Amino acid sequence: MKKATKFLTMTLAMVMTVCTLTACGGGAAKGNTITFGTNAEFPPFEYVTSNGVIGEYDGIDMVIAKQIAESNGMTATMENMEFDSLLVALQNGQIDAVIAGMTATDERRETVDFSTPYYTATQVMIVREDSDITSATDMADKKICVLQGYTGEICVQNMGYTYEAFKKGTEAVMELVNGKCDVVVIDSATAQKYVGDNEGLKIVEDPSAFESEEYAIAVQKGNTELLDKINSAIDKMLADGTINELAVKYTEEVTAE
Fold it and tell me: pTM for the whole thing?
């Protein structure tokens, strides 16, 4: 009996340890820390800077992440990785949530749960000022650049156009600046940043081709405890105008740089 009891105690301890390490399928977070995943190549939402909001990272999403954690008496940490790796890292338990200007699509909802949307955006085309592209249909015979895994890539795919995908927005825009491509399809707020940084570029909009999209924070499927904490903070920031103020502030700042 003593051996059986000892064995049972050890087994329970091992199970508890495993549950602690894996969050037992999705608890609130690990201890008093929420570890977010992002792709810091997407200004004004997330980018690397010398004096960041969370470590070396700054942007609209970084401020939102920090306030979510603080409103729940927790601390936010940030893991920077490739955009295509974010949901995999979330499902593997490497991170607790994803905040990366991520659009809450039906396809992604099949594998993760999304928070209340906190920002509405649309796709636009960045072209040179002398470009003859005035609508999405004009891209048919052009060389198109997109960001790998982002909504712009999905839109261009759905249009049936060939394209080249880059992991960094700066790389795609440099192709355009250097005359190696004709157009970059990217999110509107980020487009403003790149057009402001590079002379000779302009933004072309086509609402008939690009529908609006909603950014939201992703958590593991079924992790309602963390999702409730995130939603509570987002709802408050939407109600008091915090997120709108952040959008204005960061868009103006990155455009003016």
Answer: 0.74
